Structure formats: C-alpha cells, structure tokens
Amino acid sequence: MKLSAKNKTGLVFFPAFDWAISPTHPEREERLLYTQDQVFEEGLLDIEGIEEFRPELVTVEDVQRVHFCVPDVHKVMTESHFISAGCAKTIGKAVLDKKVARGFSLARPPGHHAMRVVHGARGFCNVNIEAIMIEYLRREYNIRKVAVVDTDCHHGDGTQDIYWHDPDTLFISVHQDGRTLYPGSGFPYELGGPNAVATTINIPLPPFTSDEGFLFTIKNVVMPILDDFKPEIIINSAGQDNHFSDPITQMNFSAQGYAALTSILKPDIAVLEGGYSIEGALPYVNLGIILAMAGIDYSRVKEPCYDPDKYRQTPDITMNIEKTGETILSYWQNRDKISERIRDKKDFDERKRSIYYDTDNIREQQKETVKICPDCAGALKIDSTSDRGTHLLAVHIPLRACEKCRDLGYIWYHSAEQNIYDMVFLQDRTEDKYLKQTG
Amino acid sequence: MIIGLDVGGTHTDVVLLGKNGIERAVKVPTDESDLFNTVLTGIEKITANIDSSTIKRLVLSTTLITNTVVQNKLPEVGMIVSSGPGIDPEYYRTNRFYYSVSGSIDHRGREIEPIDRNEIEKIAWDLKKEGIRYVGVVGKFSVRNPSHEQNIARILGNFFDKIFTGHRISGNLNFPRRIATTHINAAVYPIHKSFFDAVKKSLEKKGLNVPIDILKADGGTMSLDSSSDFPGHAIFSGPAASAMGAMPFAPDNEDCIVLDIGGTTTDIALLINHVPVLNPVGISLGGFKTLIRSLETHSIAVGGDSAITLDNHNKLKIGPQRMGPAMVYGGSVPTITDALVVLGKVKDCSRDKSYSGIESLALKTGDSTMETASNIFDQACNMILSEIRDMIFRINSKPVYTIHEFMEGYKLSPKKILLIGGPAPYFARRIEDLSEFRIGVVPRWNVANAIGAAIARTTCEVTLFADTEQGFTVSVEEGFKEKVATDFSMIDAVKMASALLMEKAVKRGADASDLEMEVIESLQLNMVKGFCTTGRNIRVRVQVKPGLIYGYDSIADMLTE
C-alpha cells in the first residue's frame, strides 16, 4: 500500500507563533500549535502529492482592491495580517497556476467578519483574506464566477457585505442561528442587493446541530445551488468552530463530519477561519480536511473519546433544518421574480446600518447607495461615520462596470464636499485604480 | 596523530594527520562487494612503518549502511507500531513482520488508550517462532510521552537480542519517519555490528588499539560503542566528510557551496560562515524518509566516470550510470574524464583511447571530436550548476512559522564554490566561466574528504519539552523526565537542555572542553483554558554545532603553506 494524494494538494501553513490580539484571547499564538504538532507527527508534508508553500505578503494594492481602510491600509493591518492574507493569495495562485489541484491555507488571524469599510477589527478580523485573494485572482487570471461557501459557525457577515452587490460571486454562509450567536445576522431573507439578488444565501442552523444536519444541508441545499450557479472556482471559508468541543459556540459537528463535508463540497481552495477548540478539535479537524482535500482515506481520523451517540441531534432539530432548507431553495428557484420585485422602477437603492467592531470597540454608522443597473453590478457609495470621529465617503466602481456606472462613480468622487468628509475614497476596479482625497 | 578514512564510490581515501599537517595520504580502490577488505587495506597502507602508539584516533566514513539501505538488502526484523487515530499505519508498513497494535497518546503526551499486554506477548511469541532477533517499537507522539514504547519494549525484553525504540532516535515529530528510521536501525544493526567488530579485532591484532569513531550524516562523529544504538546514523556520511573537509577553507561571513566531484556522483553541500547547513527534519535516501540528522546535501549522478551515451535524437546524455572506468584507463564506454583527456585538460596519459571513444560519439552528433568533447564538458558543468541553483531555491523557499522568521528570513546567496574530489581542478575554470560564482579548489582536494572525517567533532542534539500546566519537563531521547514548578521558564529549559546535551556529547566521545553548543529552536507559548493562562508550553532544541576538533581548526594554514 502506498500513500499518495489522489488530488495534488497545496498547503500554506502559518501559525504566527508570535502574534496575538491579547495573551488570553481565543485568537492567540497557541491556536495552531497542536494542529502543527498533528500535521508534523502524521507526516502529512511527506505524502506524495501534498506540497507546502511558503507564503508571500499581500501588497497594499491587493488590500485596496477590496477594502476602504481608515485612515489607511497600514493603520488597520499588522504584519500578521499581511502574511495571513498572503497565505490565501499564495494558495490561490498555486491552484490557478495548476501547480496543485486544490489548496488549503491554514493561517491566522482569520478574516470573514471584515467588511468593505474597515475602521478596525471585528470578530477577531481586520481584513477579509478570502476577498483579497478572490479579487487578486480575478485581476490576474481573469476568472469571473466565484462561489464562497462559508462553513464557519459564525455568520460570514464581512464576506457577505463585500459581495452583497456582486452578481458574479455566490456567497453561501452556513452557520449557527444568528439569534443565538455573534454577529447576530445571517437570516434567510438576507439575499443580497438589488443587482445581485440571491447570490447571497444564508442558511442558519439551530444550536446542537450534528454531522447529520450539516451534511444534509450541504448535500440538499448548497450543492444544488452551486450546480445551478456553475462557478469557475469554489472557495470554502473553513471555520472549525462548529465542533462539539468548541468553547464559544453550541454546535455538535465532528472531525469526520468536516472531512465528509469537504469531500462533498470539493472546494478548489479552503481558507481556515475560526475554530477555538485548539486542542480537542483543530488538530483532528484540520487533519480530516487535508486528507479529504487530497483524496486520502480519512476513516481513522477521530477525536479522543468522541461518541457519535452522545452528539446526535434531536428530531426537532432535523425538522427545523429541513424547513429552512425548503425556504432557501424556494428563494433560489424564485430568484428572478424576487429580483424583479425589488428592482421595480427604482433608480437607486439605499440601506442604513449601524456596525459594531467588537474587537476594537468602535461603532460605525453607514448609509449605502447603489445604482440599480441592468448592465452591471452598479456604482456604489458608502457614507460612513465612526464614533472615533472620522467621516468618510467611499465610492466603488465594480470590475465589470458599464460606462454609465463608471462615470457616475467619478462624479460622486469628484463632487464630494471637502468640508463634510475627512476622507473620500475611490475604488475604480475597471482600471485597478485606488484614489483618496483628504479634507 | 589521527587517521581519517572515507569510502567513496570509486576510491577510498585515507589520511594520517599530525601536528604538521598531512603526514601521509593514500588512495585505494573501493571494492563494494568487500568493504571490510577495502577499509583494512586502507588502514594497513596508511599505518605501514608508523609507530602505532602515536595514533590517537581513527575516524571511519563508510558506505556500508548506505549501500545496505539503498539496495534494500535489509534483513528481517520485527516492527511493532502503535498509532491511535489518524492515517492508517498500514501505509507505513516497512517489512513482513509489521504489527499495528492498540494504544494511543495525544499531542500533549496524554494517554488516550492503554496498550494491551496480551496482544504484545502474542506478537512476541510469533516473532520468536520466526527466528526474529531484533525488534523496533514505535508509537505516535512517543516523543511527547515514551511510556507506551518503553512498556512494550519491557514486555519484549526477554525474547529478543536488542530492541530499538522510536523515541530515542530524534526529538522531531514525524511518525512515519520514526517508523522508517527505527526499522533501519533495527535492520542494519547486525550488519553494522559484525563489520565493525571485525575491523576492531583486525586492528587490535596489528597492535592498533585506538578508539574508533564513526562519521555521521550530520558531519559529526559518534563513538563505536554508542553507534550500536543508532547504526542508521552512519548512513550517507560521504557528503558530510566532503563538507567538513572544505570547511576550513570557506570564506568568513559568507555563504559558500561545497562541491565534491567524484567518480560516480557529485555531492553539493552548503556552508554559512563556515557552518554546514543541516536538514531540519532528517535525511531522505532512496525512497526512505528518515529522522536521521544530516547535512543538507544533494547528490547528482554526474562524476568523472559518468558514461556518455546518445539518446534517440543523437543528443549527448551524461550518466546517470557508471559503466566501468574511463576509456583512457581501459574502460569500454566514453566518460567525462575521456572528454577532459581529449580537451587536453587531463595530461600524463595517452590520448588515443579517449579520442576514439569521443570520436565515435562525434560521428553521430555531427560535430567535430573536439567540439563534442567540449559539449560534454559544458553539459556536465551546466547540470551541476543547475542543481546548485535548484537546491538554493528549495532551501530559500522553505516555509517558516513566525512573523519574526518571515520578516527577518535569512536567504542564502552564496557567491563562492569550493571544489574537492579527483577531477576538481579540471572543472574549476570552466564552472567559473559558465556561472556567476567564484571558484576555489580546496588544497589537497583529492583527499579533502578523508581530512574532513579525521577532524570532525562529536555532535548530537537534545530536544526538551516542558508543559507547566501538567507540571513536567521531558527529554524523551535522553530518558529524562522531571517535575517542574509553574514558574519554570525558557531560561530554565535552555539550562536543563544544555546540561543534558553536555552529558550526552561526552558519552558519545566528545571532549568536554571542546563543545560548541547552541540553541537551534525555542518556542514558548501560553496555554489558556477559558480566559486564564494555565501554563506554558516550552520547546527547546540544542545541539553541538558540527565543526572541527580543537587544535586542528588551524589545518587550513598548515595545508595552504
């Protein structure tokens, strides 16, 4: 018997043993220590067809392509964030260069709570490492349709925000019900902006959902939607905090469940997100995911003392999950009608939000205006004020903007009243150009 | 005086070193089928008419273990493997009598499942019946907690001649490599023992009663006594000998490549400011991935005797085989050496045979004989250069795991190549012309590897692991475990590891006053439960740096004068 990977799989591993939010914070130095021990002891890096890459840093421009950083990129990112986002970028390049068939970036800190405007850290995240990777790949490899399946236990509200108006990015988040967990969002009716209806899909699962409920949802809800959407690449935001031993969530997922999920989903790229049961879950879950990605037998990967019977979900939970699945599939099937209704005769759509940065204790007020456009994702402007006193206007011209939306973006940018705003940003994705004026 | 002996693929080099430098140097042909005779002949020649009482040390670097492993001539042994959850250990089967047993330890060294005494005893009886005398015992995470391996070894104790346990080989994590390495140690043990017992006995008969040291793959030595527990460490010592031989001639504060061009192969090693670069995990050889500490070396099948053939498109092909000696020395297939003869680089011999050999190739390539010879030579130089560049790129692109390492990451950028080996001087000029490197030929290039073996220091390493939450510190390779208080710190850990290292090095033959120790890895992380720090997880690795023994480090001056 010879051990080799059926799918050539790339890994980037960056445990950042010298960086933490604070010494006892769940997102701390020790987080990937035991995972590294397990990966090394299992000899994964010696397996034929598993290749480890050295990460590169992302550039300031890579970040500007996605975010409006207040006041600038260097003020919201540490070296660790440049490397962590660089890990995702490295693995994305390795996959699209066909050096490997699939890739997994195991780096910290995570990123899926970081939204388009960044005043500071939310949910342990400063910048969105998946989005930075995706937009880099879109620019360098000319790919268009991308699906992100976020299986972290927390709603991927940052990724949702960034792709809310983008019809070319299907974002599906499967998470513990927002009524019971941070960040308190991610309900089925959150379906995306008027130019991108139903390319945002939220699947909340009740607390104490086990492998059965998860895999049911992936097989019967996520996979059919992915099949319809036909993305060029599938990215998995692979949070591991659905695990039964995770200290900050209430789900009952196991390492076997995660491995099975991975072999059903077949992501081209997986990016580690959360997961704070650093001894009891991460070493085994990561091992399971890596083996499943590589197409290697994972049947003997098991947490010590795991007893499936103890963590079986109740019939109530099963019913709840099936009902949610039906609702979501009906939204998906009726997406054209819903879209028509929302876009009906309006030129612009507005939403007002209050965003809380729990990690840095910042409160932001946003007013977002998007052009409803039949030809593109629509010009977008965000008026944002933080309780630290910064007031800014951020203008986004999408990658495949029509000429009208492009012109509108520039008009917004140039006509912004200097005496109102401290800063005015422009993201012109059509030209890969990033401008800023200060008041 | 010290004798250094290095067995190469074609020749075996022997030197006798004294206070005034090289007293004597000899070369004898290597007979792979009778290494014992090769070694003995070498020693006889070097000691002829020398007062044996003046010889203080004998260091041997042989291909005995390498050949046994690479040619897969490993005798049957028993292997008992306890894995717990993870990848099926059947994938790591090393041999016929390979048993996967119950028992499991986790990443922090906690017992998850006990071993089963009855299961082990039954296997012991089976192995005994098969006539097995040596057994290897390996557990997953045994370097965190060796108790399962130790208990299994205790149960097996009375049944077998010698038991090899995985945790004593290396402090590194890598279960599959631990299995492979333990298997190699158990399997080569009888071959190693009978060979060196015979060498020792023959030398004693001749009145040569000196301590014998064996060169290891990491460029250090171990005493013959201690080698019986780790015979596998003697694998692939040839490239280490060359690197040690070149070491005194390396430039200060600079990276440098060592190139040993032999008859069959060319070995590449790297020095950073005189210190050889070590492989972080262990040597890989002929499909075997091990935990044996070794220099970062790379061997390619290009040497003076590499056969030159033509492919289907009449393009020149160098190596990879050696098909006997060069035509100039009576061989039947043209070689790189023959090309050198045609080009007039190798003199003092008749050019005719070489010329006709290269001419036969030239008839098909369509170039003149001189052009063909020069193409062969350039192609060989370029093959070597491209391997050097690949190797530097590979080392520089190795992943790192902390921001500090990432930001400060040292990148190798050697500007100089030191050449040793028989054909070294012929290659020097051309490699320099074809590349951006400065070239230096090591004085006494033809026996520099034997010099390297003679003056290599005893090396070893110690890994210490402390878990202040569980309240212990352990160095499993050393069989060391102690309770520690909650305030046990990194400084304490380094002190403790250094004391263990000192003890180990002296036991293995080192001179206590000549130990250059250094910390090669240190990591300290807080362990947190809930939101409170409950302890520290400390990992320290210390080593005796590979280097030259005191008093002989000035050998460069003696040889250059």
Task: Outline the structure in words.
Chain A is of the alpha/beta class and 439 residues long. Chain A has helices at residues 33-41, 60-64, 73-76, 79-96, 129-141, 157-163, 211-229, 255-265, 282-294, 315-333, 335-343, 403-415, and strands at 4-14, 48-53, 68-69, 102-107, 117-118, 146-150, 169-176, 200-205, 233-238, 269-272, 348-357, 362-371, 380-386, 391-397, 423-428, 433-438. Chain A is built from twelve helices and 16 strands. In chain A, the strands form three sheets. Chain A has an eight-stranded parallel β-sheet with strand order 2-1-4-10-9-6-7-8, with helices on both faces. A six-stranded mixed β-sheet of chain A has the order 11-12-13-14-15-16, with helices on one face. The longest helix of chain A has 19 residues, at 211-229. Chain A is globular, with a radius of gyration of 21 Å. In chain B, α7 (238-246) crosses α13 (448-455), α9 (352-365) crosses α10 (369-396) and α10 packs across α12. Chain B contains 15 helices and 27 strands. Chain B is of the alpha/beta class and 561 residues long. In chain B, β9 (134-139), α4 and β10 form a beta-alpha-beta unit. Among the domains of chain B are: 78-190, 3-Layer(aba) Sandwich (Rossmann fold); 461-544, no CATH class. The longest helix of chain B is centred in the middle third of the chain and has 31 residues, at 175-205. Chain A binds chain B through residues 1-3, 12-19, 23-24, 28-30, 33-34, 36-38, 40-43, 46, 52-55, 79-80, 83, 247, 279, 283-284, 287, 291, 296-297, 299-305, and chain B through 85-88, 90-93, 104, 106-108, 112, 140-141, 172-177, 289, 397-404, 406-407, 523, 525-528, 530-533, 537.
